[in-house]
Structure formats: C-alpha cells, structure tokens
Amino acid sequence: MVERKELESCLNGLLGPDAYEDYGPNGLQVEGRGQVRRLVSGVTASLQCIDAAVAAGADALLVHHGLFWRGQDGRLTGWLKARVARLLAAELSLFAYHLPLDGHAELGNNAQLGRRLGLLADARFGPQRLGFAGPAGALSDLPRLSAQVAAALGRAPLVVPGDGRPLARIGWCTGGAQGYFEAAIAAGVDAFLTGEISEPQAHLARETGVAFLACGHHATECFGAPAVGEHVAALLGIEHAFIDVPNPA
Ligand SMILES: [Zn+2]
Question: What is the pTM of this model?
C-alpha cells in the first residue's frame, strides 16, 4: 500500500511530463482514494477499461489515452460524464501519460514496440524526438519485416511497399504518427512503421521508395502502459495488472 501522492511522484519522476508539449494534461487526471494497493494499466480510459479496473479491485488506473484533450469544450456530459462518474463512484484514480509514455527510452511505447520487433533505436527523429530509428538487423526486407510485425502484434499490417530496396534502417513511432513519415524519410530510414495511415502516406511511400506500414494504433500502443505499471509497482511494492480492451483501430 502506498499513498496516491507517492505513486504520482514516482510516475512523474519516471516519465518527466514537463519535457513535453502535449495535447492534454499528463499525470493525475481524476483523483480517487488516498491510498493505492492495486494498480491497473490499460491503453485508453474507455468505459470498458474503467469497468474492468473497478472489477479487478484497482485503486488507480494508468493509461496512455486519458479523458481530457485540448479542443474539448469542457462539459461533463454524455460519454465523458459516464466515464468520470464511474471513476468517482469507485474512488478510482486516473493517471494518464500521453507523449511521455511514447517517448520513455526503455519503458515507453516506442522502446517496448522496438523490443517486440527486435529493433533497438540508435537515433531519434521528428517533433519532440518521438520517432525512433535503428538498424534493421534480421528484418532486412519487407516480407521479413511484415511477418515480424504480424507475429509480434497478432495482426497483419497494412503495407505500402517502397521501391523494394533492402532494409538497412527502420523507423517507427507508435499510434497516430503517420505525420512523422516525412521526418522518418529525412532521417534516412528504408521503412517506417506506425499505427495509422492517412491518404498522403501511400503516395509518399511510392514516390520516395520508403515503405510504410500501418500496424494498428491500439496494437502498437499496448506495451508502454504495462511496462511502466510493472516498473512502478515493483518499485513501490504494490500490485499491478494490465487489462487489454481490444480495439481494431
Ligand atoms: Zn495513441
């Protein structure tokens, strides 16, 4: 059992949210009970995830996608009211870390996805240096890379081939980082992986020769929150469990 404030300072110390310009508040988003015995981690603070955390007896929930984002109008109505009401009724604290949970060099989404794929970053690129790049190693052509992604994530990626070149360097950035494709190309990678694709990236892949792989927003962001949850739980001597609420997007 630890004080919620101790968990909060442990998470903030580990993830360093002040170093990021983000789309919403990082850290404690909804305040629950003062002490934490059991921490649950998940990808998104959806109603299903909150309900599962309550059912698991959690005192705190740690997610990558929290409830509050820039551009919201601030009203607690509809689905947002339902989520907040459920958290407050259960006195379940909600901790959310967005970009800090992507960027952490060992425990973040990018580092952990790299581990699952057998990739180790030796360079960073793009806005806030969130893009990771490293040698392709054994993933030296597109079929090998696609097969490795499918095996690691349990789903086949959407692949836009480049010019068929051998892969020497691979870039990746989890989630909705399709906008990082040009920065990845400029950083000299031969293939770029992220969660989602938008229309322009298909043309860019064809015209620059750099392959683009859309591997799933949720699928690529399943590893950071549990890695951080496990780490802080071990440090503080509390329980931790990861709850996956599958998402096809
Ligand atoms: Zn995301």
Answer: 0.96
